[in-house]
């Protein structure tokens, strides 16, 4: 794979209306740029960034478009994973997944609980649609990058398996 194409979807009513600056999307992009070396199968990382309001159907439609039409192997969403009435990102995501990835959710929550007890209020979803891995991250730059840090080690292998890349199975640990 020449370039890993990553979608970063910020889900925020205020940011989509221009009332607040999106800081989480750029923080995720910078984190991936700084850690692009973990994606050994790719010669670089390219980004698609977009901001939309907390509208369940619009979120689902965007995820479907990015997966089915743009064929992005990785989509990271930020925002809409809490308890506020308009936080609907997990519901919109789960509606379009073909396979859930509960281990990714558990790793993020477990890692976050070591930082703050409020992590138990996060409701991330993660899974696969066709050949796209979709992961919901919190809406704050700190929370988004901390959660991404918790799972980044597994993302290259997940993407390799999902895309059936050569040598994907060689990444499994061999018993000693």
Describe this structure in words.
The chain has 176 residues and is an alpha/beta fold. The chain is built from 7 helices and 6 strands. It has helices at residues 13-16, 24-34, 56-69, 89-94, 102-113, 141-151, 155-162, and strands spanning 4-11, 45-52, 74-78, 99-100, 126-129, 132-137. A hairpin with a 2-residue loop joins β5 and β6 (132-137). The protein starts with a strand and ends in a 14-residue tail after the last helix.
Task: Characterize the largest beta sheet: strand count, sense, and whether it forms a barrel.
Answer: 6 strands, mixed
Enumerate how many helices there are, as a single number: 7
Strand content: 15-25%
Termini separation comes to 30 Å
Instruction: Give the oligomer, counting copies of the same chain as homo and different chains as hetero.
Output: single chain
Order of helices and strands: EHHEHEHEHEEHH
Widest β-sheet, arrangement of strands: 2-1-3-6-5-4
> What is the CA-atom radius of gyration, in angstroms?
15 Å
Helix content: 25-40%
What is the 3D shape? globular
Structural class, by secondary structure, is: alpha/beta
Identify low-pLDDT runs: none
User: Mean pLDDT score, rounded?
Assistant: 95
According to DSSP, the number of beta strands is: 6
